[in-house]
UniProtKB/TrEMBL annotation:
Domain of life of the source: Eukaryota
Annotated GO CC locations: cytoplasm
Residues in the signal sequence: none
Protein name: Translationally-controlled tumor protein homolog
Domain TCTP: residue ranges: 1-171
Pfam families to which the protein is assigned, alphabetical: TCTP
InterPro entries, alphabetized: Mss4-like_sf (IPR011057), Mss4/transl-control_tumour (IPR011323), TCTP (IPR034737), Translation_control_tumour_CS (IPR018103), Translational_control_tumour_p (IPR018105)
Family: Belongs to the TCTP family.
Molecular function GO terms recorded: calcium ion binding
Length: 171
């Protein structure tokens, strides 16, 4: 299995894995569909019948529905208004371009990334109100912000991550 970690942070927060079907978008991002799962409650059936005279001693149901990717990678919610997100994104893209260059990408590859990233960022900003924002577990301000949105059906959640901001770790 491959775990995708945040390439720009000291803590190398885990953000995604190949156990989720990744779809490349515009050459700069990955999308992965999520699912809402139930965690916490465990139903135990002892096989005994409750006495007719005794009241049902029901156990409190502490189950909660969570997003499987957000929960699995311990992503932390954060919030932005449009201006602060644009400011974050500008700085993040600069760091990502430097990271690419430092890791052997040619000037043409960096320029191609910047052009494609700018186009994809416009899509995000034009639908800004539809997104929820998450950081890695360490909440490192230099790290990637994972975007959560819903497919056209309004039910299926998916996350979006910047492809070039990930590094692979085989486990």
């Amino acid at each position: 299995m491959i775990i995708y970690r945040d390439a720009l942070t000291e803590s190398k927060d885990e953000l995604l894995s190949d156990s989720f079907k990744l779809k490349e978008v515009d050459g700069v991002a990955y999308e992965a569909d999520c699912a809402m799962i139930e965690i916490g409650a465990v139903e135990v059936d002892t096989g005994a019948n409750a006495s007719a005279e005794e009241a049902d001693e029901g156990v409190e149901d502490s189950a909660q529905k969570v997003n499987n990717i957000i929960h699995s990678f311990r992503l932390q919610p954060t919030s932005f208004d449009k201006a602060s997100y644009l400011s974050y994104l500008k700085g993040y893209m600069k760091k990502l371009a430097k990271h690419l260059k430092d890791n052997g990408a040619s000037d043409e590859e960096v320029k191609d990334f910047q052009t494609k990233a700018q186009g994809f960022a416009k899509k995000i900003v034009s639908n800004f109100k539809d997104y929820e924002f998450y950081t890695g577990e360490s909440m490192d301000v230099d790290g990637m912000v994972v975007l959560l949105n819903y497919r056209e059906d309004g039910v299926t959640p998916y996350v979006t991550v910047w492809k070039h901001g990930l590094e692979e770790m085989k486990v």
